[in-house]
Specification:
- The chain is an alpha+beta fold and about 120 residues long.
- The chain has one domain.
- Helix content is about 35%, strand content about 15%.
- The chain has helices at about 35-40, 65-75, 80-100, 110; strands at about 5, 10, 20, 25, 40-45, 50-55, 60.
- The protein has a 5-stranded antiparallel sheet. A two-stranded antiparallel ribbon has the order 2-3.
- The radius of gyration is 16 Å and the shape is globular.
- The structure holds zinc ion.
- Zinc ion binds near residues 56, 57, 70, 74 and 75.
Length: about 120
């Protein structure tokens, strides 16, 4: 049985797969998967969720708002100016920081506890 996960934040999973928030995907069991889960980029799903599917790229999403955000970002109806693009990214970053912060207290360095930090 494939293990279903949902992206908590947008991230590039593989060279070919860019995920958006709320996007459902099958985890591949790669070396980095554990880190992605620990830091809060994605989380496991239980059971098989009812998804909202993108008609343009067949991406699957947990809910309608996630699908709509994906649509605005990946399939814009009109070209955006670089300025509009920047503004959109800013808004997105702020929203993500509030709704789906990364678990930065769970990095390897912070888990070790002591003041000395080693590079991961
Ligand atoms: Zn799409």
């Amino acid at each position: 049985m494939p293990k279903l996960f949902a992206a908590r934040r947008p991230f590039d999973y593989t060279d070919d797969v860019s995920l958006d928030q709320g996007q459902v995907f099958e985890i591949l069991g790669r070396r980095n998967d554990e880190v992605l889960i620990r830091l809060g980029y994605c989380e496991p799903l239980t059971g098989k969720p009812k998804t909202s599917d993108c008609r343009l790229c067949s991406g699957k999403f947990l809910d309608e708002p996630s699908l709509n955000r994906h649509g605005r970002k990946r399939h814009p109806r009109e070209e955006r100016t670089p300025h509009q693009e920047d503004a959109l990214m800013d808004t997105e970053e702020k929203r993500l920081a509030e709704t789906a912060p990364l678990y930065l207290d769970k990095t390897k360095a912070s888990q070790k506890g002591s003041g000395r930090q080693k590079r991961a």
